[in-house]
Write a structure and sequence with these properties.
Layout (H helix, E strand, L loop, with lengths): L1 E6 L4 H12 L6 E6 L2 H10 L5 E5 L5 H14 L2 E7 L14 H22 L3 E10 L12 H20 L6 E5 L8 H5 L7 H5 L4 H13 L4 E2 L3 H12 L2 H5 L6
Parallel strand pairs: 1-2, 1-4, 2-3, 4-5, 5-6, 6-7
Length: about 250
């Protein structure tokens, strides 16, 4: 059985990736859609009646849910042609403004779930299979006012690059997607403690365009996908200049 797996499939970037997967006619026997909200996942079967979806309303923070995913993979023994990991969230605000529980939850969802889900799916990935991970341009530079989220995405970028190197024998196409601000439901939670900085509003991207570029970059076997001239320039500058220069100005009240 050839399948695709998409986490965070109920909203935001995950939702756009489901749509794009359908547009590309990969002839998958099943698409496994994973998120916490069952009703949103069930809507995919109504929207695309020609495609079989396996609805997995799982919370990637819960051990029992991760165990269920592992057991399901073991029972089905699928060939995974496409794996896209979009689950994650961020909260903007200074460290002392965000509760310890919320900060720990960010690390758990954004970092641990990446490692755990990847470990579960890797044995079933097809030769030259495709893996796409949502990271962020926040991974390029420490961000006061967004410290835990930026650090968690730096972890994702580093992990995905290492995973890609380890997957050469199987020739997996592994890509980390590093956009700037994208117009999705992400900011509904991200802005509970802080307003969105003006410069982020200026570079707010269309999720459809970000996802389309990520898909194309993964097809071309690119390591990192960065959408937009401003973010590409940001990536370059943060490589060339010491981060301490930026940190003198970022996050000031």
């Amino acid at each position: 059985m050839n399948i695709g797996i998409i986490t965070g499939a109920s909203s935001g970037m995950g939702k756009e990736f489901v749509k794009l997967t359908m547009q590309n006619h990969l002839e998958l026997d099943e698409i496994w859609v994973i998120a916490r909200r069952r009703e949103r996942l069930e809507a995919w079967s109504d929207l695309y009646k020609e495609q079989k979806f396996r609805i997995l309303p799982l919370d990637l923070q819960k051990k029992e849910d991760m165990d269920y995913l592992g057991k399901t993979l073991e029972e089905v023994q699928p060939h995974i042609e496409l794996f896209i990991h979009c689950a994650g969230f961020g909260i903007m605000g200074r460290i002392q403004e965000i509760s310890m529980e919320e900060q720990a939850e960010m690390v758990d969802v954004n970092c641990r779930s990446v490692v755990e889900v990847s470990s579960l799916v890797l044995p079933y990935m097809k030769y030259r299979g495709r893996m796409i991970y949502m990271a962020s341009a926040a991974a390029f530079l420490p961000q006061p006012g967004f410290a835990v989220y930026a650090a968690s995405k730096a972890f994702v970028l580093s992990y995905v690059r290492a995973l890609r190197a380890e997957s050469r024998e199987k020739q997996l196409r592994v890509t980390a997607v590093c956009p700037g601000a994208v117009k999705t439901e992400f900011f509904n939670r991200a802005l509970t403690k802080k307003h969105l900085p003006a410069y982020k509003k200026l570079v707010m991207a269309d999720p459809k365009k970000v996802v389309k570029k990520a898909w194309q970059d993964n097809e071309r076997n690119k390591e990192v996908s960065v959408y937009g001239k401003v973010m590409k320039l940001t990536q370059l500058v943060t490589k060339l200049l010491p981060h301490c220069l930026f940190l003198q100005f970022i996050g000031r009240k």
